[in-house]
Amino acid sequence: MRSLGMYVFKVLWTVTCIRAYTVGAQFKIGDTRVFKKVSKGPDARMIALDSHAQASASSLSECAAQCKRRPEECFSYVFDKSDQTCRLGSWSAPTGIIYTQACGKDVEETSLSETNGTLYTSACCADGYLLHAMDKQVTKCVRYVETSRQFADALKDCEVDGGQLITFKTDAEYDFVQWSMDCLSDNWVGIQDNCGFPGIDCRKNPSSRKFYWVDGEELSTSSLEKITTIFDNAGFVEGCVQIGGIFDTFNDNKCSSNFHYVCEKVLPEEGIYC
Predict the structure, then answer these.
(1) So which residues are the signal peptide here (predicted)?
(2) What per-residue confidence (pLDDT) applies to 255?
(3) Residue 42 and residue 15 share a domain
(4) Per-residue pLDDT averaged across 162-180, rounded?
């Protein structure tokens, strides 16, 4: 029994070691994110975390583990073997192309060109997008658009570069959309009704009105309860949904109205490397 127990211990130890390993230019940790080694350009930048952004680490795996313990905010790190330092950050840009403001609020950047060490990142966003972790399961790249457009034009603008108007199918995403009103006072969100669909006449049959996300999925009952408290479909022509403005909450409005908007891209599990 002792030999069997030792064998099981060795197997478990091997599996544990495999969960954290280096293969070429990639380092994988147990929360499934893959941190890819990235070459730093002369103007490389990284947005530092708000607190404890720099710590000591005796190894690359220890530095990665420190980032892993903060999955909702840490997406990049720089490990310097020479002085055993680990710098943690969120969004990184190896080429230096990075937005210096998040939603109009200053953020602290760390210049990487003057630091030693190797940059690893699990995800970054394309130009104009900022990384936001809604919760441990949902991470998005978002772009705040201050130009006011009609719903269809806003939708098209988001889709041009592979995004969509922002949605909120979880409580954490809902909270984020509420918070986004601090960034843009009145925004379109990715919801519209079916009253303009072929064969649907909401004027004759108001109960036939249903709401859909821009990806085609019908809103759940719980989502509807959160947003439809003041919906009235005035004149049966208010088929799109915005948040903010004079009502300071969700409201149905004419799709031909002009509002700001937020585009989103949901990061795949394997991440996006710029």
Answers:
(1) 1-20
(2) 95
(3) yes
(4) 87
57/213 Cα distance (integer angstroms): 45
CATH number, position 94: 3.50.4.10
How many other C-beta atoms can be found within 10 angstroms of the C-beta atom of residue 69? 10
Residue range(s) defining the domain that contains residue 54 = 2-124
pTM over 0.90: no
Any idea what the CATH number is for the domain that residue 240 is in? 3.10.100.10
Residue 113, judged by CB atoms within 10 A of its CB (0-12, 13-18, 19+), counts as exposed
What tokens were used for 213?
């996300």
Q: Which one, of 172, 192, 157, 184, lies nearest residue 263 by Cα?
A: 157
> Between 223 and 134, whose confidence is greater?
223
Residues 6+ apart with CB under 8 A from 120: 27, 35, 36, 37, 38, 64, 76, 77, 78, 79
Number of folded domains in the chain? 2
| DSSP structure class, residue 245 | G
